[in-house]
Amino acid sequence: MLLDPTDEARLRMNRRHFFGRASLGLGSLAMGTLLGCSKEKTALLQSADPTSRLHLPRIAKRVIYLFQSGGPSQYELFDHKPLLRERQGEELPESVRGDQRLTGMTSGQGSKPMAGSLFDFQQHGESRAWVSELMPHTAAIADDLCFIKTMHTEAINHDPAITFFQTGSQQAGRPSIGSWMSYGLGSDNENMPAFTVLLSRGAQRPQPIYSRLWGNGFLPSLHQGVQFRSGKDPVLYLRDPQGVDRNTRRRFLDGLAKLNELRLEDFGDPEIDSRISQYEMAYRMQTSVPEVMDLSDEPDEVFELYGEDARKPGTYAANCLLARRMAERDVKFIQLYHLGWDQHSDLPRELASQARDTDQASAALVTDLKRRGLLEDTLVIWGGEFGRTNFSQGSLTATNYGRDHHPRCFTIWMAGAGVKPGISYGQTDELGYNIVENPVHVHDFQATLLHLTGVDHERLTFKHQGRRYRLTDVHGEVVKDVLV
Questions:
Q1: What is the three-class DSSP state of 387?
Q2: Where are the bilayer-spanning segments (predicted)?
């Protein structure tokens, strides 16, 4: 018996295909914006799926995350501990360390002599925040910053620790935080990706960074981060092949979309929708990406603000300036990674070099956003994956020492949308080894970030392999004390 083609397609649809078609969820709104839907159609998608609405009032329209990969030492930058100087060279008391596990680099080290910072601290601004002499530009904007001095994590090595911050799990494979935001909130600019990534590296022992850190995990591939590079092709595979003009490209994409739509009707796989939207986004980015990467329209005073390195593609300063340009174009999540903060030895020299690379540009970004009226709805974050030990790894001398990884307490700062400016939150003990007041876990940080963007971290979920996942897993509390 001959079947009607429609009936035949239905018979080919298995259980996986059916639930795949039925579970677009929050992604429907994001898909609509990326496909260039009209406001009316986007509104229809949103009203048809109540979970796609913002759960909370949105304060931050965009996030710029300045991730300092390697673990910056809090003792030399933001957590002033004069008692460490007084007790220089003394053994770290067992009562302070407790059952804290150490990495293989210091667990077998017989002596653990405490090491005070070689760099001076002063209090700055009306907030009287303690900031090291290594960060003079950051010190100048202390009243715009919220220092969280009691971040803590379970991860003790770089890769799981960075993965934990970026995905909510120490094991690879989960969606990154930018992908969650793209999935939950969509895009405000149909000509740019919702989630972009920029990389730079210092001269000091850069730890490797893997592209899975901005991957979409089990979310539709539409939501993966797009890396912008400093070379001739900022985004790979964006240029038309030789001999292909815009009109030919347009006709090719139209024909390919029709084929993909036929495939979608047969199988209902949401990834086919993602593929269509990615081709269309790439076509639009052929115009928008060169425009955002071209700094020739920036006046000299902007380069003076960010530093001369901002004229050199691929530097941290240039990436901070690009982050501001992307923020102006309503890119939702802008992720910067700066590598090289892993000072196991020769810390005074190497850390000073890292600070010179990043201090001016980080402060300039906050200042630039503020004067353009963008800071009030842009959240800026600065920090790494863990801190450093208060004792020296290896030999301690009067002028040199190193520090191992320390997950129990470390410092980050935040600025902008919805965050209280000019405060230092949390307190560590006099030796800077343990938290004594207001601990903030990685999941708490993630919950707070999502809260500021209008998302309830407990309600932003995605069903995968029979379980509903979220960025914060089954943990996390919004840190309301740091919010305006």
A1: strand
A2: none
